[in-house]
Write a structure and sequence with these properties.
This protein is of the alpha+beta class and 202 residues long. It is 23% helix and 27% strand. A six-stranded antiparallel sheet has the order 1-2-3-4-8-7, with helices on one face. The chain is globular.
Length: 202
């Protein structure tokens, strides 16, 4: 009996230690200790940007902007002098070597060179000519349009019929007009005024 007592004491101590370890984590129905892990929230690169598409004027030309109501735009489309489309990412000031703009719609991704515009309304701007197939894809998009500048998180824009309408108006020359200016931004007199001016005697 004197030899058995120390052995029993050791077994009891070991059992207590195990019960303390088991109490450190939640147990399932089988009393097995589950490992508790800290889950860090991951950035959701597929979340849509907050805002809406709206018509506007930029430098007396019609434009299509996206952004929160009552706030400066995050992104806009603007017709250029050759009836192409400027893709403008607002709020990013150019510095150093300019990155590229990645435009993704579904499985289509395009890398576009950008130019920078500073001042009170900084932006990075990419250009698409009037015959670029990406314009057709943008106008018919049924999935989000992702705009990524360099390594920054993407700006996920919701698709809208307004995009296709604006691109079509630009191709026809309608979106280039605004404030009495022609597509190149020069003040152009209406046709009837030009005709009447030609009828005046010298």
């Amino acid at each position: 009996m004197t030899r058995v007592a120390p052995v029993l004491a050791l077994l009891l101590l070991a059992a207590c230690a195990r019960s303390e370890e088991a109490s450190m984590g939640p147990a399932d129905s089988n009393q097995a200790v589950q490992k508790v892990e800290t889950v860090r929230p991951e950035r959701n690169d597929e979340e849509l940007a907050l805002g809406e598409w709206r018509e506007s004027l930029q430098e007396e030309q019609q434009a299509l902007e996206f952004g929160p109501t009552g706030a400066p735009p995050l992104f806009s489309l603007r017709c250029d002098a050759r009836r192409g489309i400027l893709l403008q990412r607002h709020g990013l000031a150019p510095s150093g070597d300019l990155p590229v703009m990645l435009v993704s719609v579904g499985s289509e991704t395009r890398r576009l060179a950008v130019t920078g515009s500073g001042g009170p309304n900084p932006m990075l701007r990419a250009a698409l000519n009037a015959s670029d197939q990406l314009l057709t894809i943008l106008g018919r998009a049924a999935t989000p349009i992702a705009i990524r500048i360099g390594d920054s998180p993407p700006l996920n824009l919701p698709p809208s019929p307004m995009i296709g309408t604006y691109i079509a108006e630009c191709a026809s020359g309608g979106a280039s007009r605004g404030g009495g200016a022609d597509a190149a931004g020069n003040g152009a007199a209406p046709a009837n005024e030009a005709a009447s001016a030609g009828d005046e005697p010298a």
